[in-house]
Every structure is written in C-alpha cells, then in structure tokens.
C-alpha cells in the first residue's frame, strides 16, 4: 500500500509565502469541485496557488499525488455527521444523508473514495462514531462494520453512478430526462414488439413508472435500514 500522509508526514509548518497543507488541500478540493471529471495535477495547483514550481507542493502532501488524494478524501469525510442521541437507525440515516450531501458538494469524492483506504483522521472518526451506534447489540465485528459499509457503500455507489451519468449526458448531449426518454423509445418499442420480455415491457409502458422516482438515495436508504433492522434488532432480541 502506498504510504499514507498522516502517518509519514504531519505536514510542514506554514511558511512566509502562506503555503500550508490546509491551503494546498483546500485548493485541490476547490479545483475538483469546479470540474469533477478533471484530474487535478500538481501543475494545476501550482498555478492556482501562485507557486513557481509544482515540486514545491509535494512536501505538503506526503510526497506524492496519492497523498494529495488521501487528504482530499479525508477533507470530505470531515463534512459527514453521525447523530448519536436517537438510536442506531437515526444515527445511520444521519450518516447516509450527510454523506449524500457531501457527495453532492464534491461529486469527485464518490470515485476517489473507492480507490484509497479510509484511514485518515476524519474517516476514522466517522467510522468510529458509526460503529459506536451498534454497541449493545449482539453483533460480531464483521456484521458491525458491514452495517456501516452498507450505508456508506450505497451512498458512494449512487454518487459514482451519478458522476458517470453526468459525464454521459455531457458527452451525448442528452441533458434532460425527455432527451433520454426520446433516445431510448425506439429500442423500447423493438423490445416490446419482440414479446420476449413481457414484464419489463409492461413496466416500460407504464406512464407512472418514474413518478415518484423509485430509487432516490433517501428512499433506498430507508429500504436498507429496514433490512438492517432484522439483523441488528433481531440479534439483540435473540
């Protein structure tokens, strides 16, 4: 595993030029927010920060671009909250909702979170608080973390899907739901005419199939929590 910046380098003290780890990471987050599909480079950051040499920035991020990615991801984990005063369900729902809000502000995070371990201080704090919600329930270690990962995995997976959908819409020019529907209709008509997939075709022909939207993140989160209740509360009662 590539070294993690928090364990190898605490970050040099701020210099007279105003540079610091916090400022470098904030600039990287802002650049990624402006274009979530952009690969933020050290050269980009040097220009944004008014630094002559991109190499001067590596000292602030553990010596590598991977270290910068770790720090950017952990900065987003800092925006997540885990309510701890109303039981496990409210706590995990709060985690999911705050994580989805963070993904909305930083769409690139959904991709980055899958590529690096969540071992920064903010990520560890989020997981620690979420695991604490399950104290008092007779759950083994794998199940405890599985409950937390189910919520975060759902949110991050939905965020990654939305990121890719956004790229597809920009690439194809199908920017609205009507555009997508019109583009798909000839294929749906051919599928229906074949008679091979009657249940799918009946669903596709139903004018109410997307009203209300069947798979909002919030609604699916509720379904997941309903399922987790059988595991969490069932074992506690048993």
Task: Please give a handful of descriptors for the protein shown.
single chain; 238 residues; mainly alpha; Arc Repressor Mutant, subunit A; Tetracycline Repressor, domain 2; 2 domains; 11 helices; flat; transcription regulation; TetR family transcriptional regulator; Homeodomain-like_sf; Repressor_TetR_C
Q: Please, what is the average pLDDT?
A: 90
The share of residues in helices is 55-70%
CATH superfamily of the largest domain: Tetracycline Repressor, domain 2
Instruction: Describe the main β-sheet briefly.
Output: none
- What shape does the CA trace take? flat
Can you name the CATH architecture of the largest domain?
A: Orthogonal Bundle
Q: What is the H/E order?
A: HHHHHHHHHHH
CATH class of the largest domain: Mainly Alpha
Number of domains: 2
Number of helices: 11
Number of extended strands: 0
The poorly predicted ranges are: none
**Secondary-structure content class:** mainly alpha
Task: Return the CATH topology of the largest domain.
Answer: Tetracycline Repressor, domain 2
Please indicate the percent range of residues in DSSP E strands (runs of 2 or more).
under 5%
Describe the secondary-structure layout.
Blueprint: H1 5-8, H2 21-34, H3 42-49, H4 65-77, H5 87-105, H6 109-112, H7 121-132, H8 141-172, H9 177-194, H10 198-205, H11 217-237
Helix pairs in contact: 2-3, 2-4, 4-7, 5-8, 5-11, 8-11
């Amino acid at each position: 595993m590539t070294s993690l910046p928090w364990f190898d380098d605490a970050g040099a003290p701020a210099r007279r030029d105003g540079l610091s780890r916090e400022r470098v990471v904030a600039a990287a987050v802002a650049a990624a927010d402006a274009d979530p599909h952009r690969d933020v480079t050290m050269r980009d950051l040097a220009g944004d920060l008014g630094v002559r040499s991109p190499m001067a920035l590596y000292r602030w991020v553990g010596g590598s671009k991977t270290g910068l990615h770790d720090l950017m991801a952990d900065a987003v984990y800092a925006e997540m909250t885990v309510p701890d005063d109303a039981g496990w369900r409210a706590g995990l729902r709060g985690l999911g909702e705050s994580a989805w809000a963070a993904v909305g502000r930083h769409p690139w995070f959904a991709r980055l979170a899958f590529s690096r371990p969540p071992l920064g201080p903010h990520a560890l704090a989020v997981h620690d608080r979420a695991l604490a919600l399950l104290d008092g329930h007779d759950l083994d270690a794998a199940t405890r973390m599985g409950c937390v990962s189910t919520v975060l995995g759902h949110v991050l997976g939905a965020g990654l899907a939305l990121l890719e959908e956004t790229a597809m819409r920009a690439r194809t020019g199908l920017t609205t739901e009507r555009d997508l529907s019109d583009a798909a209709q000839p294929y749906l008509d051919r599928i229906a005419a074949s008679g091979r997939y009657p249940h799918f075709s009946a669903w596709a022909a139903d004018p109410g199939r997307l009203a209300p939207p069947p798979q909002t993140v919030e609604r699916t989160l509720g379904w997941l929590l309903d399922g987790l209740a059988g595991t969490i509360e069932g074992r506690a009662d048993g």
